[in-house]
Design goal:
single chain; 4-stranded antiparallel sheet; 11 helices; oxidoreductase activity; Nitroreductase; Oxygen-insensitive NADPH nitroreductase
């Protein structure tokens, strides 16, 4: 163990922040750290919208599931998969750009995730807390319109950043034995491992300091697969130029 690994393994989502603002230029430093993330073929297909306007924050909050910390966090960012710069750059070389390939969607989305996680780790390294806002994808079209996102740009998720005003427990992760496979994919022991993990998660949910509930990991997965989750996303992505050809 070293301080970096300890930081990475102690991550918690923070949903309550103090009113303290970030020091001048710290946000720019965090985004610069995000730019240091790995990027496929150096495409750098990520743009970040810093949303400071209070009315826009309120609108996004309503569209993203009424999560109040979107309005109250000192900083709120929207991370966007952005292939516009890349298409424009390619066409300036004189080629006729091939648009809408599935790989373009995958590359830009992966780039955003890597970029944002660098921002998250950098923020936590200086005592800040963060929470990702996947609810951005509940209503991506009006949020895109609000943020004036052009074709070939779509909002992947948001992130609240600020100084923590709570100290939640670290949520247990899946046992390493079911995540780290040796040489080939072997899941024969997963059922027993997951059953034990479900008990650990049940204990965590029942005894955590905030919002105790009777649940476990498997129960938490059920909503994702018991119906169509955000079925609007495919048509929305196509409308933004990510045709998944």
């Amino acid at each position: 163990m070293n301080p970096t690994i300890e930081l990475l393994t102690s991550h918690r989502s923070i949903r309550k922040f103090t009113s303290e603002s970030l020091p001048p230029n710290l946000l720019e430093t965090l985004v610069k750290a995000g730019q240091g993330a790995s990027t496929s073929n150096h495409v750098q297909a990520c743009s970040v919208i810093r949303v400071s306007d209070a009315a826009n924050r309120e609108t996004i909050m309503a569209l993203a599931g009424n999560q109040p910390y979107i309005s109250t966090a000192p900083e709120f960012l929207v991370f966007c998969a952005d292939m516009k710069r890349n298409v424009d750059a390619a066409e300036r070389t004189g080629i006729e750009a091939t648009r809408g390939m599935t790989e373009q969607l995958l590359v830009s989305t992966v780039d955003v995730a890597l970029f944002a996680q660098n921002v998250a780790v950098a923020a936590e390294s200086v005592g800040l807390g963060i929470v990702y806002i996947g609810g951005i994808r509940n209503n991506p079209a009006p949020i895109s319109e609000l943020l004036k996102l052009p074709e070939h740009v779509y909002p992947v998720f948001g992130m609240c950043i600020g100084y923590p005003d709570q100290q939640p427990e670290v949520k247990p992760r899946l046992p390493l034995t079911t995540v780290l496979k040796q040489d080939y994919y072997n899941s024969e022991d997963d059922e027993a491992i997951i059953n034990r993990y479900d008990q650990d998660m049940s204990d965590y949910y029942l005894h955590r300091s905030g919002a105790a509930k009777d649940s476990n990991w498997s129960k938490g997965m059920a909503p994702m697969f018991s119906g169509k989750l955000r079925p609007h996303m495919r048509e929305f992505l196509i409308s933004k130029g990510f045709e998944m050809k």
